[in-house]
Specification:
Helix content: 25-40%
Largest sheet: 8 strands, mixed
CATH architecture of the largest domain: 2-Layer Sandwich
CATH class of the largest domain: Alpha Beta
Oligomer: single chain
Radius of gyration: 34 Å
Bound molecules: aspartic acid
CATH topology of the largest domain: BirA Bifunctional Protein, domain 2
Strand content: 15-25%
Number of domains: 4
Length: 706
Amino acid sequence: MLFSQRIFCGRLTPQDVGRQVLLAGWVDAFRDHGGLLFIHLRDLSGILQIVFSPEVSPPEVCQQAAALRAEYCIAVRGEVKNRLPGAENPHIETGAIEVVVTELTVLAESEAPPFAISDKAMVAGAVSTGADHVAEELRLQYRYLDIRRPAMRDNLIARHRIFQCVREFLDARGFFEIETPVLTMSTPEGARDYLVPSRVHPQNFYALPQSPQLFKQLLMIGGIERYFQMARCFRDEDLRPNRQPEFTQLDLEASFIDEEFIYELIEELTVRMFAIGGITLPRPFPRMSHAEAIDTTGSDRPDLRFGLRFVEVTDLFSQTNYSIFRQILQRGGCIKGINLKGQSDQLSKNVLQNEYAKDIAPSFGAKGMTWMRAESGKLESNIVQFFSEAELEGLRQRFEVTDGDVLIMVADPSYAIVTSALGHLRLHLAHRLGLIPANTFHPVWITEFPLFEATEDGGMTSSHHPFTAPDRTDFDPKNSEELLALRSRSYDLVMNGEELGGGSIRINHRDVQRKIFAALGLTEEETREKFGFFLRAFDFGAPPHGGLALGMDRTVSMILQTSSIREVIAFPKNRSAACPLTGAPSRVAREQLAELGLLDLGGQTGLPGAAEKENPIDHLSWVSRIGLSAEERPVMEAILLQAQQLATRVAETAGEAEPIRTVVPAANRMRPGTEEQRSALAETGQLLKSAPAIKGNYFKVASILE
Ligand code: ASP
């Protein structure tokens, strides 16, 4: 078969009519029309109809074709023809033509696939099947078949295009793609590490990087000035729907820059990436301080596709007689609300009181929720009678109320509870009322984050990570009030309520970095142990630098508007961080744990297997990983003895027969004249019965036989 002559199905057009072509691909669908067989042949480029016609195709080819089934991998030769008028298929790009086959080769047969791969109906107007309804677990288990589906294939190709765009753009801007280690030390990004035990350093572990943060900063100290990497990051976090334990970040860092450099660079790049998905982003990207984001949307990743910004109404109630509000305000609390314009038809008193006030708002942490509906120029609710006319008029003006509006307010002594609960209500109501326009994209830079957050145990944690520069450096690391008031020079890129990425200008002075570690409660000793090598680098003229990382799985998923990030990852883990295809994570054999020094060997010292070496039977059992029972031992001893005698005889007669030696991997090599025999035990599966570890049909044995 001359594959060099092969032509992609999707590339053929009516201009090719009359051409002899060689095609190769998979049987997407077939239809038997009484001796006339139609097949949709699918390859990477698309689908083309091929026809087996008794008038043109030789009888043996027609006969062979009758046995073809879905997903058989085939090659065919034939002539490109126009379809008969009326037989065109507008569902496929090549629907005006077909290839009448004269030669067929079945390259590989296929079992019936566990789900339909074809999603293109063969007959114009017919309903196409598809795998959209197939359980995701099954799709992931047979991911290689799932990837044959055009939708998945297109996602992966689009992902490639977006990655190419990133690489070309950054290369043109003077960035170099440099890899950093995957087996490394812990990098603090707020999650747990995945650990990898070292065999050569028993009881010692590498950590998989949560990000290349430390290395990219070291590259800046190394004078690289502009670095980027499509970096795989690993974070052992609690399961969340759109998270993966390993994910890909566009990680970048630059020296002698400030925030404006990053804003300009990333805006341009983001616009280009989204353009690949046909999306034009509004420019320039607006900026919003963290404080403003919380104050007006209750979120540090605000969804700006719809209004519903918070309205502050605390001051309207400074003299109120409504006791709940009065008590809250006496305790330093606040009141904020949103106006759901013209939604009173959708939000009955019953829904507002019994669903939102009683259930939904408390589930978001609010102790209560106040609602009012505007009807006939008045505000109505179950509690309006407690408010003065001035207060109600104040609300009408502040919320710019017209009839049909619904006001939702949350009051609480805690500002955090008001903003967070109202923020959740804002999103919940926007979804419920269909206020979020489809196909709109609202990027925003969130800036001036607090440098630290208080932890539940009274300590401090970095909002971003400990290498982020504070807005001022003259703080006292022991003064928690002062620490909590510090802002950082960090920024997040947020789009439609999702954080696409973030970064910061970094600390480039050792003393400031030490102060931050001290503020985080690390002792001198802990700092030295964890970050000694890093701090040491700052003794050698660290340039001012900063950078950012963009979550590429999330970005690609948003550009392609897929239902989850798993749709844009070739081999993702499922929702419980497992891989249904390979079975990872999986248990490992005790021997492997022992080899890594991870088994309690009952006080035994010395290398695992050392004791077994003393007795040849035990040694054999150890290296072959075959457990031996007491009854099997004498049998094995006899076999070993026989083998030794045989070896001695061969050695004596050496010269007569050339011994078989090989230094290349060999399988099933037989001495000439002897016959290959398959053990009956292999057929019944008995052969693997006593193996402690099996992979497919094979024994797992030590990688090196001593
Ligand atoms: N390393 C950070 C992260 O993974 C990004 C950065 O600060 O550049 O979130």
